[in-house]
Design brief:
The complex is a heterodimer. By secondary structure, chain A is of the alpha/beta class. Chain A has eight helices and nine strands. Classes of the chains: A alpha/beta, B mainly alpha.
């Protein structure tokens, strides 16, 4: 079990984030591929800084220590762009100066060079989130739920090795939240990605179905 | 790596010319000027300076110009914002005034000159019916000995500048909430603003106010066009000495530049005292709970001041435009008898070279300034440390030190390096003045950018420069083009650095226009004033239209 985790999963080994002298988060955990680890806590408790540390964009005001391993590889010292940590925020943050397809094409790794193949991949991903044929649209014209799904398709297209979710459902209304949650977790399981979910909504934690850690303010 | 270079390079390019320039001015003032054989310490040149006729009158005019210009413009802006912020009228006047910001000082001064001169538009409108004048009266309205016309010209340009700075500071001062609170307590609009909001706003616009004082105490172009001549303000006389064919006058000019530093220093010190006094008076009035509800007079006076300064410039520009097409235009006719293209046909060929220099220098200096500003801001993101008050003061330094005081020295250094009147030297000199505005205009939009876009793109595997070119740059295109437009308009308007570093061999539209001032031919000046208006306005038009065009399909990119 532990060996397979070391190979594919996300391992946080003695991760500790401080602001000034104060410890915000401190944990050692492993998340298996397709599993979700939920971190709960009130806002301002440092949940998002944990994601920032793993993703490689921790604000210099904070100090982080401890190792982050993915698939057995230590990525702690790596720059954000080589960690392949896909992230979803509260807001979908589609690039407003690109079409829906443009957003998706931007995410596809450069290794795939054929223009046609890239386009096909983007279209396929759109269809995969139930938005077939919407590639030409201006993101500003989509509904909230559609935007959230494009954001999901975009992050999956980039070929991430893990998913970091920063309260990605909190701005959706009740019904949409339920649907989007299911879609995100289903896609993550399908792609066998370890997921770290940060939330203050117990319903998110229940839907995620994995371990839950609660941190104090 | 590249971003690491940003801040030190910027500081070097800003303070290098400034410090070396100051040294190059101070040394000749005390007798050291190896180029002319000056090798020994002496105070002779200061003695000569103090013996120069009416030197103290010149210094006095400069000092008064600095303080009065700053006080008047600031007072008009403060009371106007206090009285009218949040009303529909405010928005309209704001729109009317803001184009003036990009207008070169010299163009505004010409506009005013041709409006108020004895043969100007105003005199024509009321003559001969009201005045009985059938020919222009022999009055010193422009070039008046007290410098009132010059100060009016400066005020007309500084009002839009201080207005913009104030508007930028208002949101942080929570002006709307404060107004509701003070109104509920029974305070008049102006009093409530002055007690509650202004102290916070003023703290943020202090450096720009200092810049206004420094500029007005040492201005040359506006003074040549509108200012007194016998004696002229100090800086004008210094430039005359500096350009005198008799080279020994350079010692005198350098000693004069030291006096100019002192004059500006005294003006700033007096201002600090005035600040204290005003703060104490405000505190006292607030402590006594003086409601000052009957402030209609102040409110309308500020509105008039605002309107008059803007309309005067617009009317003057219109008059100049008509002049450039005028055939015979006798006094006191309001319009010329016939229109002709003759002035344009005659003048246009002469404008080609200055236009090219203006464009080259303006674009190069602005582009370099933009790159440096971006590198500095990227570095701030990396280190998580924002430029502190010290760095900000450093950035304002070229705007707070009188231009003559260090451009003189810079000129000596460039002569020694055989670089005077070369494009790189002129670009460097412009960069010193463009850089502060570039950084200041980009700083807030840059910090307002949602960094999560950057993190998200990093998560998608994009490198730093990919993120910059594909995400940050397009999303901030509008702000960056605005920076370029502001920088370019600053460069177009620069007079003194261009005259001294271009040394008459590299001329821009502005230096050519000011050179025409003494000739007073309104037809040719009209043509030059047109280009002075056109160039900055084109910059701002590009900054508005290009993003609108590129992103026309994307609603999220609209403002």
């Amino acid at each position: 079990m532990l060996d397979s985790l070391r190979e594919k999963g996300l391992v946080l080994d003695g991760v500790c984030i401080r602001l000034g002298g104060r410890v915000l988060v401190s944990l050692t955990r492993a998340v298996a591929p397709g599993e979700v680890l939920t971190v709960m806590g009130p806002s301002g408790a440092g949940k998002s800084t944990l994601l920032a540390y793993i993703g490689g964009f921790l604000d210099p005001a904070f100090t982080g220590a401890g190792k982050v391993l993915i698939g057995g590889q230590d990525i702690t010292g790596q720059p954000a762009e080589t960690r392949r940590a896909g992230i979803l925020f509260q807001d979908p943050l589609l690039f407003p100066h690109m079409s829906v397809a443009g957003n998706l094409l931007f995410a596809i790794p450069e290794a795939l060079t054929s223009r046609d193949e890239r386009r096909a991949r983007a279209e396929e991903a759109l269809a995969g989130v139930g938005l077939a044929g919407m590639g030409g649209r201006d993101p500003a014209t989509l509904s909230g739920g559609q935007r959230a799904r494009v954001a999901l398709a975009r992050v999956l297209l980039s070929g991430p090795r893990m998913l970091l979710l920063d309260e990605p459902f909190s701005k959706l209304d009740q019904e949409l939240r339920q649907q989007t949650r299911e879609l995100v977790f289903a896609k993550a399981r399908e792609s066998r990605l370890p997921v770290l979910l940060v939330t203050h909504d117990p319903a998110d934690a229940r839907a995620a179905g994995g371990d839950v850690i609660t941190i104090e303010a | 790596m590249l971003t690491r270079l940003g801040p030190p390079l910027t500081i070097f390019l800003l303070t290098g010319p400034l410090l070396f320039g100051l040294a190059g001015t101070l040394l000749p003032a005390f007798g050291f000027l190896p180029v002319l054989g000056g090798m020994e310490f002496t105070l002779r040149h200061f003695e000569a300076l103090f013996d120069a006729p009416a030197i103290w009158a010149s210094a006095g005019i400069s000092l008064a110009a600095g303080l009065l210009t700053a006080a008047t413009s600031l007072l008009v802006v403060m009371v106007f914002v206090a009285a009218w912020a949040g009303t529909p009228l405010f928005a309209r006047i704001q729109h009317m005034v803001s184009p003036l910001l990009s207008l070169p000082h010299a163009a505004a001064a010409f506009a005013l000159a041709f409006l108020i001169a004895p043969s100007g538009l105003l005199a024509r409108l009321i003559s001969p019916e009201l005045t009985g004048w059938h020919r222009p009266p022999d009055l010193l309205i422009v070039h008046d000995p007290m410098g009132l016309a010059m100060m009016a010209g400066l005020v007309a340009k500084e009002i839009p500048f201080l207005m913009l700075m104030t508007l930028a500071a208002l949101p942080q001062a929570r002006a709307v909430e404060t107004r509701r609170l003070t109104t509920a307590l029974g305070y008049g609009r102006v009093a409530g603003f002055v007690y509650g909001t202004w102290p916070i706003v003023y703290r943020q616009i202090r450096l720009p106010v200092f810049a206004v004082i420094a500029f007005a105490t040492s201005v040359v172009d506006v003074a040549v066009i509108l200012g007194p001549t016998r004696p002229a303000p100090l800086a004008v006389r210094l430039v005359e000495w500096m350009s005198d064919p008799e080279l020994s006058f350079r010692y005198l000019a350098s000693a004069g530049a030291v006096l100019q530093l002192a004059v500006t220093g005294v003006a700033l010190a007096s201002w600090l005292a005035l600040e204290k006094l005003a703060a104490a008076l405000t505190r006292r009035a607030a402590g006594r709970g003086r409601r000052l509800r009957r402030d209609a007079l102040a409110r309308y006076a500020a509105l008039m001041g605002m309107l008059a300064s803007a309309l005067a410039v617009f009317a003057g520009l219109a008059a100049l435009a008509v002049w450039s097409f005028a055939g015979l235009w006798q006094f006191p006719d309001v319009l010329p008898q016939n229109l002709t293209l003759k002035s344009w046909v005659r003048t246009l060929p002469r404008t080609a070279e200055p236009l090219l220099t203006t464009l080259l220098v303006g674009l190069a200096a602005t582009f370099i300034a933009a790159v440096l500003a971006i590198l500095c801001l990227m570095r701030e993101d990396e280190t998580g440390r924002r430029a502190g008050q010290g760095a900000l003061a450093l950035i304002y330094l070229p705007l707070v030190v009188p231009q003559v005081a260090f451009i003189f020295g810079l000129q000596f250094l460039l002569i020694m390096g055989d670089l005077l009147a070369t494009l790189p030297a002129l670009i460097l000199a412009h960069l010193v003045f463009v850089m502060p505005y570039a950084y200041l205009s980009l700083k807030d939009p840059w910090r307002a950018f949602d960094k999560r876009y950057d993190w998200l793109a990093a998560g998608l595997g994009k490198s730093r420069w990919q993120r910059f070119f594909h995400v940050r740059l397009p999303m901030m295109l509008r702000a960056i083009l605005t920076l370029l437009a502001i920088g370019f308009s600053v460069s177009v308007g620069l007079y003194l650095p261009t005259v001294l570093i271009g040394a008459g061999r590299l001329t821009t539209i502005t230096t050519e226009a000011v050179a025409l001032a003494s000739g007073g031919n309104p037809r040719i000046i009209g043509v030059y004033a047109f280009f002075q208006m056109l160039l900055p306005a084109t910059g701002f038009a590009v900054a508005t239209l290009v993003p609108a065009l590129i992103f026309r399909r994307f609603h999220g990119m609209r403002v």
